[in-house]
């Protein structure tokens, strides 16, 4: 059963007065519990495509269905709730540098009706899950890139999302750290049943964790399928 379904989704930007189809009539279904990779060169439309999954980017045309809800038909409060079920991590971590690691992780819970003790207990549990419990009082600047990404992952999980979107999350990391982060994502997929949509420009990243892959070019999906089939050597 698909947890994410994009039907004929296009996103058109105005670029120097001319229309640019950053996403061009894409159909994509992603099954619950999958690790689905989206690969392509810079400018292929990967980020724009995944941003339609949480309506950070409104499609110009087409339908986005997540967990059987047509996102464009939801009221503002319902859309806000739907978005909470989609966590996101990025290449540059986007942590708050003036806040401790613990504060960063509890941040998404501040808008929830739960008290501080419960909120911090939850944040500590998440830090445990990503292997950073002893760093709760550190500041992001005191951490390595891989540790920062772990904090970002813990924060992305604060609202118990069903889906995690990873937009080039390992692109700023060395190969060993990349491997550790990918292992963590795989573990979260297996233990929490988290559906992961992973954007990258590196084939090795797709090969090491994804089950399915779509190759994007100029806004279109030009190839897709099982990773082993798409990247098999002839
Ligand atoms: P494409 O035509 O995009 O290269 P394929 O040849 O892999 O795709 O598949 C044939 C058709 O099946 C596609 O046009 C597409 O609409 C549909 N399809 C295949 N895989 C998916 C998927 N994961 N989600 C949605 N539609 C799919
Ligand atoms: P990728 O993630 O594959 O690198 P993007 O989705 O970031 O690709 O960009 C796809 C295309 O859309 C690029 O040509 C980019 O310049 C353009 N683009 C992205 N965002 C905007 C925007 N807000 N306004 C205009 N053009 C944009």
From TrEMBL:
GO terms for molecular function: ATP binding; ATP hydrolysis activity. Transmembrane segments: none annotated. Keywords: Amino-acid transport, ATP-binding, Cell membrane, Membrane, Nucleotide-binding, Translocase, Transport. Residues 4-234 form the ABC transporter domain. GO terms for biological process: amino acid transport. It comes from the Bacteria. This is ABC transporter, ATP-binding protein. It comes from Lentilactobacillus hilgardii (strain ATCC 8290 / DSM 20176 / CCUG 30140 / JCM 1155 / KCTC 3500 / NBRC 15886 / NCIMB 8040 / NRRL B-1843 / 9). The chain holds residues 6 to 239 of 357 of the full protein.
């Amino acid at each position: 059963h698909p947890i994410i379904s994009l039907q004929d989704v296009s996103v058109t930007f105005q670029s120097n007065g001319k229309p640019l189809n950053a996403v061009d009539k894409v159909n994509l279904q992603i099954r619950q519990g999958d690790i689905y990779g989206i690969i392509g060169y810079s400018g292929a439309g990967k980020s724009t495509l995944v941003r339609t999954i949480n309506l950070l980017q409104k499609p110009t045309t087409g339908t986005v269905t997540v967990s059987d809800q047509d996102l464009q038909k939801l009221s503002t409060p319902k859309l806000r709730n739907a978005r909470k079920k989609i966590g996101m991590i990025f290449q540059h971590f986007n942590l708050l540098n003036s806040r401790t690691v613990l504060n960063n992780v509890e941040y998404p819970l501040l808008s929830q009706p739960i008290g501080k003790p419960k909120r911090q207990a939850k944040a500590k549990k998440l830090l445990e899950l990503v292997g950073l419990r002893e760093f709760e009082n550190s500041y992001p600047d005191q951490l390595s890139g891989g540790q920062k990404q772990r904090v970002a992952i813990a924060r992305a999980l604060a609202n118990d999302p069903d889906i995690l979107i990873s937009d080039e999350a390992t692109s700023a990391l060395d190969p060993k750290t990349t491997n550790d982060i990918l292992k963590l994502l795989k573990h979260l997929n297996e233990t929490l049943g988290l559906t992961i949509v992973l954007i990258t420009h590196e084939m090795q990243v797709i090969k090491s964790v994804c089950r399915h892959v779509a190759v994007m070019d100029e806004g279109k999906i030009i190839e897709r399928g099982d990773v082993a089939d798409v990247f098999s050597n002839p």
